């Protein structure tokens, strides 16, 4: 067990940066068109609940990582099997984020640069970061994640002159179904992905702060996604918004008099970097724990290389990427994000209650013995 | 059982204790081995003056500045005393007045049979000077002579008196050239260690101000002093500093720069992990914040640890000025730091990759000014930066009068001629000039900036803004990884330390900063302790 400790504010920013990640680029709830704000509100609430489940698991099993919890609850064979599936999930997630980043850069800024160069260089920096340890990741997020908020607010405020504030009417034109679909998509991406943080929660220096950090982070991210959605729909209108590939980028181009395109790169790189590094860190740590390797740093290079290759190989083109993240990803990640954690939570509760029952019984027994 | 009793018996014997003490002393003497004085590890002082003279002449052969004088006093001149010292190192007038004259006066009529108590009489009431020490063996006596004391050998004694009559040497206390300030004290440290410690004591009148001396350097045996305020400085850091200094094995310690290189946490990092200062009030402030200072004889630069990133943009003036102004200056320094690192890189990225980001009208001017330039932007930028660095280095090494001529040449060459000759564009000159000006605003980071500038330039030429971003993030990761004596380098930003954030980019007024003892630990800058509120 690594002895590194992160403070609650570091965890908050790490979590917020993670949830931010590539969310703004892919705009998961946009299927609901101009009702997406309802989907975002619902999805945010659901996501907060789901993250509450993760936090509860972490609180019921203090200072234990996901691999250790799984081994304890599901036995050695079953636990190892599920852990390996989880490792795959983390690696897959990291490579999808890398692909998002690379696709965005190659589509928008560097049209002639091979994507492998962009992703490869990014991965080199990620390896450096992950090898520096979770403490450094926390400290770096303290420096860089606030930049995301700053950029979002600057762009939102600068666009205040070119808005049409009625763009989100009419409400519920297509009924509730697209809204519910959008909400479900939003729960699994980005909120459900924070299941990775079960590997990071044990590092928190004050465990009870988890109860505050997790909902606060979910609320902030929901608020910002909502803010960005309203900004985009006020500026672009629902029709153009649904059609465009990278919405925030298009919005930033509409800024009168000044081009802030590089700022979008910065937010994507910081958010994506945090998300990727946490995923790689979690994958490496989990693999270490299951294989009994002492130092996870031996694995980060290999895992990152694998992620780079996987990210280039996983989609044929950008349209497939959007299709996958909208239609397949939510169902693909259901077992990892919802089924396994709920199972763990139930098992943890049962164990806890049985423990307390036993304690109560033994106490009773003692009392009875005393009475005799 | 008997064995144990025996042990206890032996341990209680006084002479055993004495023996162990002597052997201990032998060990310590072994450590600073006297290669060039040819002394044994523990050599007793001969009882007769003739033998002492002989031995000293052997040790100090070919030392033309070595002086010894034999004084014969007492009735019939029967008492012989030998004074040995280095010429020029001791203050002869003090030596004559405080040591030799009283000896001659007091002992003029002493009989020889009174001699046995002579040593203690000398020590207790004859010699006027306060700074008296015993030398138990020849090594200590030689050490005393070498470090500028006068040593008195007395006929028939196997001890010697070491009397500190060092002549005040070196320059006067004056204003340092490096860290000039508009407000605040103008006193700077000098080469003499004792003067420096006095300057610190003058500012912090407190018995908790500790000054621990040690000798470093096999050949030079330089006096090095670890200075801290007990109760404010972290004990672990003080211990760590002392341990690192003791581990330091080197022949020569000529400057604190050498110590810095040995004790720094990351020797490969471009960023300074140990601070240095020439200003007394700045050092006093650092000590009051709980830092540990390392003073070294022979240099005016004093080291302070732990050193944090934020300290490089803190200036003592900030604390004496209006808080709003100070905050503005801090932000200005931060911008200067960013500019001096990234400006050439940003220019190259804009010109080579991101035309769309440049406002249209500026783009036209830019294109016009770049017309006819034979080089690509990066060659142009690298060329101009190298020329500037050459000029800067020449300006530093030149004598001052020639330096002025140099600056005129530089201004003409860099400014007008290169543009009209068609080597660089007008805008490039502005960029390099701004970079140059900015790089002088944050002196502690000047070395890091100089090299990082080229890294940013290369990255910008390779991947535009994205390249700059990659390098910037890598630098940030590097900064977050570092620790200076256990304290994370980027404190107070990461880890976020709200109590010291008041003295970061934002400077709150001094009266609001002073909230409680120990609150401002490692905030950097000048004194901000509780002043009794």
Overview of the structural elements:
The complex is a heterodimer of chains A (372) and B (533). Chain A has a single domain, classed as Amino acid/polyamine transporter I (Up-down Bundle), CATH 1.20.1740. Chain A contains 15 helices and no strands. Chain A has helices spanning 8-20, 23-26, 36-60, 66-74, 76-108, 115-131, 134-158, 177-188, 210-236, 238-243, 247-253, 261-291, 297-314, 318-332, 334-371. The radius of gyration of chain A is 22 Å and the shape is globular. Chain B has helices spanning 2-12, 14-31, 49-59, 92-106, 118-126, 138-146, 193-203, 235-247, 256-263, 280-288, 317-320, 323-352, 360-370, 377-397, 400-420, 426-439, 446-481, 510-513, and strands at 66-73, 79-86, 132-135, 150-154, 160-163, 209-216, 222-229, 275-277, 292-296, 302-305, 483-484, 487-488. In chain B, the strands form three sheets. Chain B has a five-stranded antiparallel sheet with strand order 1-2-4-5-3, with helices on both faces. In chain B, helix 14 (377-397) packs across helix 16 (426-439) and helix 14 (377-397) crosses helix 17. Chain B is built from 18 helices and twelve strands. Chain B has 533 residues and is of the alpha+beta class. Chain B has three domains: 30-163, no CATH class; 193-307, no CATH class; 319-487, no CATH class. Classes of the chains: A mainly alpha (372), B alpha+beta (533). At the A-B interface, helix 6, helix 7 and helix 12 of A face helix 17 of B.
Essential attributes:
heterodimer; A: 372 residues; mainly alpha; Amino acid/polyamine transporter I; 75% helix; B: 533 residues; alpha+beta; elongated; disordered N terminus; disordered C terminus
């Amino acid at each position: 067990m690594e002895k590194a400790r992160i403070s609650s504010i570091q965890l908050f920013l790490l979590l917020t940066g993670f949830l931010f990640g590539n969310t703004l680029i892919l705009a998961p709830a946009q299927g609901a068109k101009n009702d997406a704000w309802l989907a975002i509100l619902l999805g945010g609430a659901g996501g907060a609940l789901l993250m509450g489940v993760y936090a509860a698991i972490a609180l019921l099993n203090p200072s234990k990582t996901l691999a250790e919890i799984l081994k304890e609850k599901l036995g050695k064979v079953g636990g190892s099997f599920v852990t390996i599936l989880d490792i795959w999930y983390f690696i897959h997630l990291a490579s999808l984020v890398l692909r998002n980043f690379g696709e965005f850069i190659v589509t928008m800024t560097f049209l002639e640069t091979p994507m492998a160069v962009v992703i490869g260089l990014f991965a080199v920096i990620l390896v450096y970061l992950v090898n520096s340890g979770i403490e450094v990741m926390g400290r770096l997020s303290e420096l860089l994640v606030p930049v995301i908020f700053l950029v979002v607010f600057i762009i939102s405020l600068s666009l205040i002159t070119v808005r049409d504030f009625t763009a989100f009417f009419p409400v519920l034109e297509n009924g509730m179904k697209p809204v519910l679909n959008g909400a479900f998509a939003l729960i699994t991406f980005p909120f459900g992905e924070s299941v990775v943080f079960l590997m990071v929660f044990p590092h928190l220096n004050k465990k009870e702060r988890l109860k505050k950090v997790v909902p606060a982070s979910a609320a902030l991210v929901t608020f910002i996604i909502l803010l960005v959605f309203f900004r985009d729909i006020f500026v672009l209108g629902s029709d153009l918004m649904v059609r465009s590939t990278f919405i925030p980028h298009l919005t930033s181009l509409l800024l009168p008099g000044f081009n802030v395109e590089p700022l979008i790169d910065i937010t994507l790189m910081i958010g994506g970097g945090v998300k990727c590094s946490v995923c790689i860190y979690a994958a490496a740590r989990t693999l270490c724990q299951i294989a009994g390797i002492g130092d996870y740093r031996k694995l980060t290079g290999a895992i990152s290389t694998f992620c780079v290759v996987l990210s280039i190989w996983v989609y044929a083109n950008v349209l497939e990427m959007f299709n996958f993240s909208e239609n397949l990803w939510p169902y693909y990640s259901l077992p990892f994000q919802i089924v396994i954690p709920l199972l763990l939570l139930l098992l943890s509760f049962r164990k806890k209650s049985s423990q307390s029952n036993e304690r109560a019984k033994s106490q009773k027994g003692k009392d009875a013995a005393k009475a005799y | 059982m008997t064995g144990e009793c025996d042990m206890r018996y032996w341990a209680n014997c006084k002479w055993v204790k004495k023996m162990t003490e002597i052997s201990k002393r032998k060990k310590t003497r072994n450590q600073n081995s006297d290669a060039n004085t040819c002394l044994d590890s523990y050599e007793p002082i001969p009882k007769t003056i003739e033998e002492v003279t002989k031995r000293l002449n052997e040790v100090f052969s070919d030392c033309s500045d070595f002086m010894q004088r034999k004084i014969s006093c007492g009735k019939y001149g029967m008492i012989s005393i030998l004074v040995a010292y280095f010429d020029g190192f001791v203050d002869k007038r003090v030596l004559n007045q405080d040591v030799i004259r009283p000896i001659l006066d007091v002992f003029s009529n002493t009989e020889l049979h009174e001699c046995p108590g002579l040593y203690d009489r000398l020590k207790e009431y004859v010699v006027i000077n306060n700074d008296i020490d015993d030398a138990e063996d020849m090594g200590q006596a030689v050490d005393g002579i070498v470090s500028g004391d006068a040593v008195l050998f007395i006929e028939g004694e196997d001890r010697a008196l070491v009397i500190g009559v060092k002549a005040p040497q070196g320059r006067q206390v004056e204003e340092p050239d490096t860290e000039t300030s508009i407000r605040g004290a103008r006193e700077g440290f000098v080469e003499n260690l004792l003067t420096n410690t006095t300057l610190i004591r003058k500012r912090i009148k407190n018995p908790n101000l500790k000054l621990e001396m040690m000798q470093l350097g096999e050949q030079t045996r330089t006096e090095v002093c670890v200075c801290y305020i007990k109760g404010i400085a972290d004990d672990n850091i003080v211990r760590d500093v002392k341990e690192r200094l003791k581990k330091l094995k080197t022949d020569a310690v000529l400057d604190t720069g050498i110590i810095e290189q040995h004790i720094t946490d990351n020797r490969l990092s471009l960023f300074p992990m140990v601070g240095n200062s020439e200003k007394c009030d700045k050092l006093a402030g650092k000590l009051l914040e709980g830092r540990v200072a390392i003073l070294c004889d022979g240099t005016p630069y004093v080291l302070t640890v732990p050193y944090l990133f934020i300290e490089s943009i803190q200036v003592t003036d900030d604390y004496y000025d209006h808080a709003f102004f100070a905050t503005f200056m801090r932000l200005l320094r931060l911008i200067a730091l960013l500019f001096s690192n990234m400006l050439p890189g940003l220019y190259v990225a804009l010109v080579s990759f991101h035309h769309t980001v440049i406002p249209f009208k500026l783009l036209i001017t830019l294109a016009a000014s770049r017309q006819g330039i034979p080089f690509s932007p990066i060659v142009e930028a690298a060329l101009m930066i190298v020329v500037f660095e050459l000029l800067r280095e020449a300006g530093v090494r030149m004598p001052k009068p020639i330096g002025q001529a140099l600056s005129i040449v530089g201004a003409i060459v860099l400014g007008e001629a290169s543009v009209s000759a068609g080597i660089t564009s007008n805008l490039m000159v502005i960029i390099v000039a701004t970079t140059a000006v900015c790089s002088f605003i944050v002196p502690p980071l000047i070395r890091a900036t100089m090299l990082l500038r080229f890294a940013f330039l290369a990255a910008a030429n390779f991947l535009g803004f994205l390249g700059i971003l990659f390098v910037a993030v890598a630098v940030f990761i590097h900064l977050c990884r570092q620790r200076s004596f256990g304290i994370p380098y980027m404190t107070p930003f990461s880890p976020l330390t709200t109590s010291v954030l008041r003295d970061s980019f934002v400077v709150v007024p001094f009266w609001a900063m002073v909230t409680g003892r120990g609150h401002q630990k490692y905030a950097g800058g000048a004194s901000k302790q509780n002043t009794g509120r």
